[in-house]
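Reopening this ticket.

The earlier resolution said the output was attached, but the attachment link was broken on my side. Pasting everything inline this time so it's all in one place.
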Amino acid sequence: MSSAKAIDALVQALGNDLVATGLGIPDRRYGDWSGVPYSVPLALLRPRNTEQLARMLHICNEFGQPVVPQGGLTGLAGGACCGSSEVAVSLERMNAIEEIDAVSGNLTAQAGCTLHAVQEAAEAAGFLFALDLGARGTCTIGGSLSTNAGGNRVIRYGTMRDQLLSIEAVLADGSVVGGLHKMVKNNTGYDMRHLLAGAEGTLGIVTRVVLKLHPQPKSVSTAWCGLPSYDAATILLQRAKAELPGGVLAFEVMWPSYLDFMLDKVKGLRAPLSGRHAMNVLMETAGVDATGHPAEFDEFLGRMLVEGVLEDATVARSTSDARALWAVRDATAEFPILLPGMAAFDVSFAISDIGRAALECETLLRQRWPQCTALVFGHLGDGNLHVIAHLADGAAAETRAIEEIVYDLVRRYRGAVSAEHGIGILKRKVLGHTRSPAELAANARDQTSAGPQGHPQSWQGSLSPVSFLFVAKEPIMTATGKKFRIWAQGATDKTGHQAYLEQLLPYMQACIDPDFEIEFHTTTPSVTTVHALSEFRFSREVIRGAIRAEREGYDVFFMNHFQDVGLYEARASVDIPVLGLGESTLLHACTLGRKLGLLAINPAFIPIHTDQVQRYGLQQRVAGIRAIDASMSDYMEAFASSARKTELEVMFIREARKLLDAGADVIVPTGGIPMMLFGNARGANVDGAPVVNGVTVVIKAAEMAVKLRRLGGMGVSRVPQSGFAMPDAKTLDEFLNHG
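Inline output:
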C-alpha cells in the first residue's frame, strides 16, 4: 500500500497535532551530525505518551511504512537520518522526569528527556547519574540508550546499558514490552534492557526507563600527566586502579599529534605541561573524603614520578583549573570547523593492543598521504580509540581509501568498528570486520522476529518494489569477512517479462564470484515502450537507485539496460562505482575485434544506439547498426518456445551477416533480452564473429571495479570538465524530494 494511505490513516486516527504533514512539518534538521544526506520526512510523529506511539507504529506496520526514530540528532553514524519516503518519530514531547526513588536509588524518566535534565534532577536529589557526554544538553535518554552511549566515565560506571534497571518500549507492530521494575535482581527470562540497548531502534522504540543513581562524590581530583611511552600509560592505569581508594573516574589518553594540533589551532587553550611527551593522560579520580582524597592522589602521583612512570604532571587545584585541563580534551567539538570533510573513526581494541594499533594507523596514513592530518586520542580505560584523518584536498574516493586502511587495521587486531557511536548507515558495510556471518544472520533473525516493517536504517524506497537476492554458491568470504554487494537495476518486472527474468536471474547467480552477492531490482511499471519519456522515467529510477545503493552499503551499482539512461547523472551523485550495460558491453567488445556491429531489438532503437555510439566516441569502431523486425511479445514468447526462438535466431543471423558484410567482426546484441537469447551459449558466434553477452560483461566489470577500487583507491574523476562533480546536500535534497 502507498505511503499516502499510511499518512492518511495516521492523521485520521491521531490528528494533526500528533501527525505533522506537508507545510505543518517544522522547518528544522532531520538528520544527525554524521554528514549523511537526509530529507524532510513524509510526516513527523510526536506522541505525548506510550499509547499514542503504539497506535502510530501499529498503523505504520499495517501499511508497510518505514519509520525513523529520532532523538537529539547528535549521532555520528547516520542512524537518525530521514529518507524522503519515511516518517520520523520524535519523543521530544515525552520529556518528563516521572519519579526519583531516593530509598532505592533510581530515577524513572521518559525517553525524550535530555541527558542534562536527568543529570540535574539526580544532582538536585543528592545523587549522580553517571553517564556523561559532550552533547549532554541535546542528546536524549532514548537515543543514548539506543546507541549504548559511552563517554568519559565508562571506566568507572560502564556504558548506558549499565545504568539501566528496567525499560519500556514499543515494537514495530505497536505492542508494548517491558515493565518499569526497580529490582536489581530479576531473572525472569530475556532481559529487554540488553536486547534494546545498542539496537539503534531496529527492535523497537524506547519510551520510558528506570535508571540507576549513584552517590555524589565528595571530592574529585584531576591531573594532566606526561609519560615516556604507551606502556607507561598502561602501567599508570593499572596502578591507579589498584592503589587509588576512589578508583579511576576518567582516563583520557592523547598522542602528541592530537595535543600539538589542538594547541596550535584552537584559541584559548594553554599547554598543561611545559615539555613535550610521548603520551599525555588526563586522569580523574573521585572519593568520599573531601580532605584525605586529594592528598592520597598527590601521593600517588609522587610515587609514579619517582618510579619513572610519569615524566611530569600537574594537578588541578580548583574547578577552573580542572575545566582548563578538560578543555584540551573536549576541544574535539572544533573538528568540523578546523577539518571540514574529515574522516572520523570510533573504534575499540584490547588495551594491550592500542599502542601498536595507533602507531601502525598513523604510519599507514602518513605513508599513503604524507600531508595527511592524523590525530589519535581516546578513552584508554575502556579500549576506545578515536582516529581523525583529514586531507586538505581530499575527495570522496580518498575518504573511502582512508576507511579501508583504518577498518582493515581494526579487523586484523580483532577490534570493533564501533565503540560508542553505533552502526547507523555509515558502518553497515564494515560490520563483517567485527561480526561473523552467523552473528549477522542471527541479528537479522532478531529484527525479523520483532516485526520491523521499517526500522531506522531501512531506506525502503518505492524505486524497486521487487528484489531478488543471489549469493554465490561457494561460501567463501573476502579478507574482510563479508561479501561485496552488487546492486543490479533492471528496467523490467515479472508482470511483463517473467519468462526473461526466469532465465536471467539464475544466469546472474551462476556468473558471480564467491566473494560477491548480487541483488536484482525490478522497475514497475517496466520500460516497455521506445520513447524519450519512458527512458527519462527509468533514468530517475537509476539515479535514485544508485543513491539508495550507496546509502545501504552496496559496493557497486549497475543498470541492466543497454541504453544507459541516467548513467552519467548517477555517476555524479555517488562515490561507489556506477556501470551501464551498454557502456561496459561496447568497451569490452572493442577488445574482441576491430569493428563492432550493433543489432537492436527492433528498428525503433536504432536512433538511440546511434546517439550512444557518439556519446562514447566509438564512431570509428562501429561498422553499422541494424535491427530485427520483431515485437517485445515475440521475444517473450521465444523464451518459452524453442520454435519461436529458432525463428528469431534465423532473423538475428541474417541481420548479423549484413553487419559482417559491412565490415563488422564482433556482433553486439543491444539489450539484456537479445543477449540472453542469442549470446547465452558458450562461444556464441556468427560465422566466427563473437556474439557478446553483455550481461556477463557488466557483472564482471562490476566485480573488477570493486577490486580495483580496493587495490588502488582510484575513483571517478571529479574535475569540473568531467561533469561528475558530486552534488552538495541542498542539490541532492532538491532532487530526491522535489525532482
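Reporter confirms the inline version is readable. Confidence is low (pLDDT under 50) at residues 449-481. The chain is about 40% helix and 20% strand.
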